[in-house]
């Protein structure tokens, strides 16, 4: 499903020092794209994602999904959060967590089992279905969150720094797994990160956001490389360099 934002501004209760967090954001995400929102902490990446999810409404402007104005959350959009603990129901097993949304939506027993099993297979958790979140590593918890989203079969997958709290090795493994899943389900994915390598490992296109308040999209970078990304490819190295300089400029603005 295509996502369109036009002249979107957003302020939390009057804004940061009276200014909106986001101002005049125009954005089109074609169906099936893997898009990255990259930017310094606090610039408004999560806010932008929440507007697409429908958790918040733009102060001005409009967000459209498949041509329809977003007025709230919907089954067409699934979300994965950064939190390792608060995002999962601690009293439910892995299967219980993955099936939760399907139960809420009164999906039949047979479909619920099939959709949950398929999602658990995609994240390699089929052998851990009876475990409680307490018994899982951080990486496994995030895979449960991804499976929970996949089980609902959303057209759009929204991910807010899902691997930020994990160690570098686990993060890299999950990045690879996520690209495989995305290629299999062929859905639109929007992924928020402040990590440049993560952006280049995952995205077909990277949007670099300016520092807030009144943040917007500063530059857009296409990543014309196949998956898995070869970090020694001259194009990868060149993009890494350009993005590092571009983001550094924004971080400097925040601190000056
Ligand atoms: P990022 O995801 O880029 O780190 P956020 O979208 O979380 O940035 O936050 C952007 C700005 O909005 C920050 O200045 C943050 O303090 C502020 N902010 C975020 N959530 C709220 C909220 N619920 N109420 C008020 N201000 C908020």
UniProtKB/TrEMBL annotation:
* One Pfam family in the UniProt entry: ABC_tran
Gene3D superfamilies according to UniProt: P-loop containing nucleotide triphosphate hydrolases
Query: Which protein are we looking at?
Result: ABC transporter ATP-binding protein
Q: Which organism is it from?
A: Flavimaribacter sediminis
**Family, per entry:** Belongs to the ABC transporter superfamily.
Molecular-function GO terms, alphabetical: ATP binding; ATP hydrolysis activity
Q: Which SMART domains match?
A: AAA (SM00382)
Question: Residue ranges of the ABC transporter domain?
Answer: 3-236
Which keywords appear in this protein's UniProt record, sorted alphabetically? ATP-binding, Nucleotide-binding, Transport
